[in-house]
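ugh ok so i messed up the first submission bc i forgot one of the chains. this is the corrected input, ALL of the components this time, i swear. 258 residues overall. if the numbers dont match what u have on ur side tell me asap before i send this to the collaborators (the ones from the other lab, u know who)
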Amino acid sequence: MKLQNLNEVPSQDVTMEGSSGCQVKWLVGQPEGAPNFAMRQFEVAPGGFTPKHSHPYEHEVYVQEGQGVVIDGDQERPLGPGDVVYVAPNDIHQFRNAGPTPLKFLCIVPHVPKDTPVTLVPECEAVGK
Amino acid sequence: MKLQNLNEVPSQDVTMEGSSGCQVKWLVGQPEGAPNFAMRQFEVAPGGFTPKHSHPYEHEVYVQEGQGVVIDGDQERPLGPGDVVYVAPNDIHQFRNAGPTPLKFLCIVPHVPKDTPVTLVPECEAVGK
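and heres the new structure output, hopefully the right one now
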């Protein structure tokens, strides 16, 4: 068993193409020996966004703090604390902070083999501007 | 994509042997088509506890509210908001509310085949009394 507090886990900048103002904390994952999936916390700064993309694996998301939107294909859906999002494999999605404070959410993801294709939606860089 | 708020998800009583005062909300799981793992929220009433047990699959836990302890084998470790617990396969574990308000945590679990063995630790019923 491993027990730690979120505040003890270092943040890393998200450098993925199409993202802006995002940091990630890997809370549980392969370094802990987790056999199947990883728990991460994302923090998106006001005005920031994750990439608009799709991939052949799912996300299970729990919104902790802040106000945002999730792009669901061509639709924009408001997002706030206590919201739960299931992003199915191959769903086009993007998380954007639409409020004045950080948008924080947990995002659980299966362990993804290297070279798994991620398809960036071309207009993703324009969306957040 | 499925988006819903925690408040819209019905609570179910946890009837598992060795538990007391626990409710669960299934936030994402097989009904949503999730291929690998399920997200649940547990709410443990003051004085309540989950079973003291072990099983051959993992938990990834995020504590949202309240004060509790997690039993880690023979050890009792305090638990509060922002704590992250990785329960490895076959770890003996129990979550207990040690405070005056509900203990709420997310618990993510792989989809577990029926008839997966769960070993209840005999003294579990005495622990919470």
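quick check: The mean pLDDT of chain B is 94. that seems consistent at least. Chain B has one domain: 6-127.
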